[in-house]
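Sequence in, structure out.
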Amino acid sequence: MCLIGIALHAHEKYPFILIANRDEFYERPTERAQFWQDEPQILAGRDLKAMGTWLGVTSSGKVAALTNYREPGEKPKERSRGDLPLDYLRTNQSITTYMEEVDSKSTEYNGFNLIAGHFNELYYYSNRQNQIIQMQEGIHGVSNHLLNSSWPKVDGLKNELSNYLSSEPDIRIDHLFEMLNQAEPAPDEALPHTGVPIEWERMLSPIFIASDSYGTRAQTIITVNNEGHVTFTERSKGQKTNEKHFAFIINR
């Protein structure tokens, strides 16, 4: 997953809102979001190559999401980063204990950003920063650099989400998906310098990415209201006609 926006206690009716695009090579085998037959408390998509996930929740109100840290030329390591959110969704450990465990083995993975916790209490960790950070109330964004790094698509998504939530007493899922569908590339002077060729920087700069071999494959909206009602909606390649929707009450 390459772009996540989170509103934490930033709306009077919805203390948790997550909007996210997963960008990946089209050829990588993937299973769409569902409650897993082998672990029915987990609702997530599944990477069928390494068998981990990029984003998932549990019926008890846990959530975990991952993005890669962009480092051109990195050599793959044996451990898959997709295990990190999945292991948290499976564990009975507290979030702080789990993040300390991740920190202790952080060098075993390529660069990553991990957001995990409960819907009302989130933590962030990157093995390129090596700090366990409790996320504060407000609007947050992460792509393929550190949390809230000022990349055009991160700033743009955060600003749109903030403006929308401050002006709307209720939430329209379709409007949140519109935010994720913006495909306008950033101007060259605003592009980050991450070590990839300028053509790739341009291609990767929009919120919604499309190319011949790589792009936005899954879009996810998660909302939790004050009564603990969770909605999880996933679209494939930005298409409303290709949508999966789940709703449940947190099992406390």
